[in-house]
Every structure is written in structure tokens, then in C-alpha cells.
């Protein structure tokens, strides 16, 4: 319970400051097999209604606003939605809405959306099924347990480089199946990332919940410096990005 409270407070704080915008990072990735919103665009039609769960600051949704008739982004964090509203105002888009909402209690009519996307956020399979129209598609990208394994090891957290299967992915697949979804597909990747500068890695650890409470201990900076010294190479500071993607039809 303590860790859950920590993460909720973390997202609230970061949401109001930064949203979910990591575009300033100088990072090169090798082995990335898909982009979630590119997959969404491949399947969506201009007349469709899209729900984005865990929308953060709305950056991704706003960048694809022309793809659908109406796009609605929800997030549990008030801070994230505040940032999304500011980003919406600056964008001049008129077909995007942002609402603070719990994904376990979606306040939408049955079969309202043609597509639902969810990136790095929890969701409720039965609620997603309820508000999705017949034939509609659900797509979620989530972080695998072996993501940033060498950073976690450096900070004394339990980490595994080689993870044959993701328990979280298996759980979500089962929940989607039980909710009534069909044609459920799962794919995964474990990409290599190279961060160009120490400040890029510092920004990541400060704005993403990889190391709980990062910066609260006086030794955190020293630990990070040792990590950088160990994993720095010609391409940058090496770590990994492990993800899985689930697609399902109603």
C-alpha cells in the first residue's frame, strides 16, 4: 500500500510540472518493434471515437488529433489533466477532450468508443469492454518487469535481465479474455537504449517511477555516477526498454 501511495503522489507532482513529455531527451533506441500510437493510427478511421486511458499530459493524443472524429483522454491524476488542458489550449484542437477519471469506473455510455488505447497505465478490462462498440479494438502498451534492469540493479532493487515471459502481460491477457474480448494478440520487445548525456538519464529518473524515491537519499547521485561510469560507451549510457503490446477485438 505504501508504494501505491508513493506512486500516486509521484504522478500527481510530475503531472502538474511536466505531464508525460520526454521529447527533450537525447536517446537512441535499437530493437524497438512498434510505436503504440502508430498502431492506433493504422486501425482507426476518421469517423471513429477514440478513448486514451492514462493520457498523461495529452502529448501523444494531441499529436494524432486529425486521425479521428473525437479523441478523449483520461487520467486519474489531477496534475496530469491540468497539464493536458494547457497543452490542448496551446494546440488549438477542437476535437480533443481531457477528463480526470478512474479507468475502473469509466463515465461513458455502453459501446461509445470505436477504439481504446492505453499506454503504461492500469486499466479495467470489463470497463473497456463495456464502453467499446462491437467490432472495436483495444490496444495497450505496458512496461515489462525487466525494464531498466541494470539501473535497478545499481540501486539495489530486484532485477532480471532475461525474462522469458511477463507475469503482467499474462494477467492482462487473461483479464481481457474473461471480459469477452477475442483475437487477443501479445507481442514483446527488449530494446537497447543509449542516453546521450548524464542529464538525460537524470531527467528520466526524476520524471519516471523507475527508482522509487530517487533523489531522496544523499547517495543517489553517487550511485548514478557509478552507474554512468560502468555503462557509458561511444553510443551513450546503455540501459534497456522492455515493453509488451496487447491488441484485442470486441
From TrEMBL:
InterPro entries xrefs: 23S_rRNA_MeTrnsfrase_RlmA (IPR052939), Methyltransf_25 (IPR041698), SAM-dependent_MTases_sf (IPR029063)
Q: Which named protein is this?
A: Methyltransferase domain-containing protein
Q: Outline the extent of the Methyltransferase domain.
A: 51-136
Amino acid at each position: 500500500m505504501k508504494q501505491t501511495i508513493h506512486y500516486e503522489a509521484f504522478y500527481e507532482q510530475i503531472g502538474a510540472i511536466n505531464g508525460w513529455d520526454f521529447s527533450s531527451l537525447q536517446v537512441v533506441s535499437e530493437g524497438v518493434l512498434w510505436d503504440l500510437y502508430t498502431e492506433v493510427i493504422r486501425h482507426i478511421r476518421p469517423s471513429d471515437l477514440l478513448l486514451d486511458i492514462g493520457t498523461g499530459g495529452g502529448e501523444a493524443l494531441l499529436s494524432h488529433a486529425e486521425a479521428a472524429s473525437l479523441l478523449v483522454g483520461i487520467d486519474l491524476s489531477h496534475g496530469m489533466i491540468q497539464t493536458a488542458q494547457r497543452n490542448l489550449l496551446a494546440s488549438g484542437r477542437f476535437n480533443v477532450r481531457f477528463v480526470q477519471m478512474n479507468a475502473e469506473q469509466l463515465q461513458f455510455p455502453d459501446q461509445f468508443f470505436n477504439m481504446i488505447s492505453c499506454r503504461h497505465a492500469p486499466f479495467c478490462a470489463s470497463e473497456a469492454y463495456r464502453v467499446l462498440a462491437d467490432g472495436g479494438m483495444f490496444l495497450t502498451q505496458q512496461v515489462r518487469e525487466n525494464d531498466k534492469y541494470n539501473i535497478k540493479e545499481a540501486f539495489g532493487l530486484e532485477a532480471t535481465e532475461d525474462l522469458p515471459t511477463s507475469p503482467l502481460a499474462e494477467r492482462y491477457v487473461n483479464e481481457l479474455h474473461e471480459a469477452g474480448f477475442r483475437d487477443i494478440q501479445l507481442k514483446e520487445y527488449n530494446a537497447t537504449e543509449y542516453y546521450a548525456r548524464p542529464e538525460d538519464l537524470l531527467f528520466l529518473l526524476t520524471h519516471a517511477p523507475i527508482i522509487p524515491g530517487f533523489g531522496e537519499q544523499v547517495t543517489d547521485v553517487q550511485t548514478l555516477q557509478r552507474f554512468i561510469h560502468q555503462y557509458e560507451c561511444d553510443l551513450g549510457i546503455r540501459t534497456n526498454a522492455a515493453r509488451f503490446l496487447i491488441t484485442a477485438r470486441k
